[in-house]
Design goal:
By secondary structure, the chain is an alpha/beta fold. The chain has three domains: 244 residues, Glutamine Phosphoribosylpyrophosphate, subunit 1, domain 1 (4-Layer Sandwich); 204 residues, 3-Layer(aba) Sandwich (Rossmann fold), CATH 3.40.50; 147 residues, Glucose-6-phosphate isomerase like protein, domain 1 (Rossmann fold, 3-Layer(aba) Sandwich). The chain has 20 helices and 27 strands. Strands 3-2-4-1-10-9-11-15 form an eight-stranded antiparallel sheet, with helices on one face. It has a seven-stranded antiparallel sheet with strand order 5-6-7-8-12-13-14, with helices on one face. Strand 21, helix 13 and strand 22 form a beta-alpha-beta unit. Helix 10 packs parallel to helix 14. The chain is globular and about 80 Å long. It binds 6-O-phosphono-alpha-D-glucopyranose. The site of 6-O-phosphono-alpha-D-glucopyranose has 16 residues, from helix 10. 6-O-phosphono-alpha-D-glucopyranose (G6P) binds next to helix 10.
Length: 613
Amino acid sequence: MCGIVAYIGSREAYPILIKGLRRLEYRGYDSAGVALLNKGNLSVYKKEGKVAVLEDFAKNHDIAGNIGIGHTRWATHGVPCDRNAHPHLSNSHRLAIIHNGIIENYASLKAELETRGYVFESDTDTEVLLNLIEDIQKEEKRTIEEAVRVALNEVVGAYAIVVIDKNEPDKIIAARKGSPLVIGIGQNEFFVASDASPIIEYTNNVVYLNDEEFAVLNRNGQLDIKTLGNLEKTPYIQKLEMDLEKIEKGGYEHFMLKEIYEQPQVILDCMRGRMNAEQGWIKLGGVNEYATRINNAKRIIITACGTSWHSGLIGEYLIEELARVPVEVEYASEFRYRNPIVTQNDVVLAISQSGETADTLSAIQIAKERQALIYGICNVIGSSIAREAHAGSYTHAGPEIGVASTKAFTVQVTILTLMALQLAQSKGTISQSRLRTILYEMEQVPEKVKQTLKLDVKIKEIAAKYFEAKNFLYLGRGLAFPIALEGALKLKEISYIHAEGYPAAEMKHGPIALIDENMPVVFIATNKSAHEKIVSNIQEVKARKGKVIAIILEGDETIKGLADDYIEVPDTDELLSPLVAIVPLQLLSYHIALMRGCNVDQPRNLAKSVTVE
Ligand code: G6P
């Protein structure tokens, strides 16, 4: 949710900022801007729209300077427009700021500053924060870093900010609370960004700021970190393990397509070293570390948002089925505000691709206060949720850039499957032979996903038949129900077609009223135990002239005879069927979105990482 990038050193800042913003564009693309400091001049260029619009605009302007900050925005306070775009300038035009997050008490701060004569050009909370900094700097005659520190002690909310001061041109100030921020350390130069992707090609030495810390990055190579309480901290330098290739499209037309096609590999990577079918073991390091508490948990609560919440639903089915432990799955945004009953006997699983989703982070903070064990399932290494959790498992899918989550989902489901099996083995709720059978089948999953990807041509043909539909219904039972939800979410996210996922049996309690000859209904019929029942549901749709697109197991002649269109996927153990069944739905939404002329990687109004509540 908003991407920030900054540079100080001896190189030209602008190319670094623009390249960085392009990499961070997945975090928001309502507007983009840069501020450059050059020989005492502070220039700001900002435009509504994508980074490309900014680039086009800036090419006719002076873009020189060795200090700069850049921002790509996902609008919260104020509509997307040039005026509300970051960077913002202070009233004296001495300071400039970029900000990711929300200042919750901005209204009262703004009112107070207005009484003192401050005038605001934008509708943003960020401009208020900057003028508060300026006010403290002026009134209390403080250095820029001191003014930032004092101001941040007055604000309520979340932020990752970078501030530059025209009169102190040899330093930049960065601070964070609740929003991510990484500092890259080069030779007498520093980079700052919301994630490591803008930094990686210059250095792999990084420092992750902690909440309520701020850093002073000096042009002479000195890095000072302090807490907002003014305690000095020793920078903890870590080595980045990120591959530049992995954050580029690698020949694919879109990141989403690349990420869909990466699934066989990332599922394999995610399982690697964590299981052995031959020897019949599963070993998730985080689970081993807290084995007693996890094995004795009275209840497991899964909390997440969006696609990650859907993988949580699959986790519920798997853990209850295999390990016989009660599981609740909660939207993090609901959990955090309803005074949930959580005790030290509970294990809370937080699932998050980015590891930065504000609601999920708050949910685990509440659960932690109530003594639950927090287990994170995150993709981004070193992310806030991963760090807040007591233990966890990384999904190791590599950077996911397409806003609609694909590979992150399948690896989350992979981890949850392993977790359910490990728990079942420890609790003795699964026989060793059944465990081995499932593990053998798991080893085959990457290959089966690969085979499913070969159905792309057929899926594209089906997309061509239905891409003009106004509504879609996705139905499934049991483990296929979360897949129906996820399939519908993929379609609405990127094609803007209204799509609903529903338990197939619930259709008769409402959605059946929507069915007519214009309504495509996608049935996920990949779980054998529900086969007869799903066939009946298909009949019910056909009787009302609905168009049936069925995801079936290879050789399912019954449904082939009934469906208008079908996609045959390889059979696997039913418990693993979600990992295969989701793939054609990802491709279907991808092709439909393209045919409708939509921006697949950057759908309107969405952002990859939602760091506001
Ligand atoms: C946003 C993204 C979704 C994602 C959700 C949760 O809405 O657009 O793709 O599923 O956030 O994100 P997380 O990083 O916590 O998995």
